[in-house]
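Worked Example 4.2. Read the sequence first, then its structure tokens.
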Amino acid sequence: MTFSAPFVYRVAVSSKPTETSHPIAFDGLIIERDGDVLTFVLNNIEHGNEVTGVMFDAMLAELRAEAIGPRARVLRIRARGKVFCTGRERAGRDVGAIRKESARLIEFKRALRTSPLISVAEVQGDAFGFGFGMAIVCDFVYVAETASLGFPEMRFGLAPAAIMAYLGEYALPRFAFPLLLFGDPIAPRDALQIGLVSQVCPAARLEADADALVERILKLDPNASRTC
């Protein structure tokens, strides 16, 4: 299955061709390309922007394509609705299906962490479980001060194995372990203090602050920023 769309070339101020495409809509996800910016928009609003298998496959396809031949320079992950992402779909009902879901999750996180694109998570609302983990592994994590964050899996008898593998790279184990063990929500400013997010913004300024960050990144040398 191909997730790309025909591009329309327009002349920018620099006189260089800029790639632009119409948004590609999937069930629960919108993929946009505007010049050097690739954007994933979570749009599974009725289910708390939970990431489904279809959404995983679509995002993975784009990340794989960028790893082979980068066309964009920035990956922006955003969401529609009041929450950012409350987790992932757990559709597996047997051992084989559950292992397949786990393998896809691990591959997605690996592709996001190793992508040549500089990634920016724009967390406008609550982010729990996989949603919080996805934001954390991005290069920049901008969070609205009104959001709630956390890993509630243990409250439902589910060990958050995927996030356990790398959370210690972003926060000291003494801070990270209680978050996973007890599943208590954490305020954005507390997450900032322990290194899990980059910046906490007033909700009304989040989009503008993220826009400014993207503009700053695009002013950098493309080759240097891809290898940074």
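Now turn to a second chain, presented in exactly the same format:
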Amino acid sequence: MAREPREPRRSARLDQPREIRRSLMPTPTYDPEAFGRFSERIARFIGTGRFLVYMTVFVVVWLVWNVVAEALIFDDYPFVFLTLMLSLQASYAAPLILLAQNRQADRDRVQYEQDRARAERNIADTDYLTRELASLRIAVGDVATRDFLRSELRQLLEDIDGIGVRQADAETVRDQR
């Protein structure tokens, strides 16, 4: 029996993507945008007075329950379980708040870039209009103004009246002869 030549082993190339490996357990996926929106909602709620009131009522009820109701005590004096609950809440709240702040910072950065681009366009438009206005002022300096035209028209009217008077005088002199 002749052995078939073995296919050469492929070495990992860095210029090509890896082949997708199938695993027995699929990797969990999530929508980062949906998770971000969820974290923002939680961060908004944690930052309200309503949350502070709810948390205060929760802690007071916990303390009263475990101090007054001796038969129903489930967390003795040092209140280790309450501390654990509050630490757990804080350990989840802090990263969610940071995620919401990062998303807000990204939105602020995009808004800032848009505002800066808009301001640059406004400055360019203003510069253009300033140059156009300056060129119009220079051009108007060479054009007859309203006062100049009025004075010229008055002069023409006076000249016409003068010609008309001379012609009338000439006609009266002819008529007299």
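Notes for the reader: The two ends are 152 Å apart (CA to CA). Residues 16 and 174 are 114 Å apart (CA to CA).
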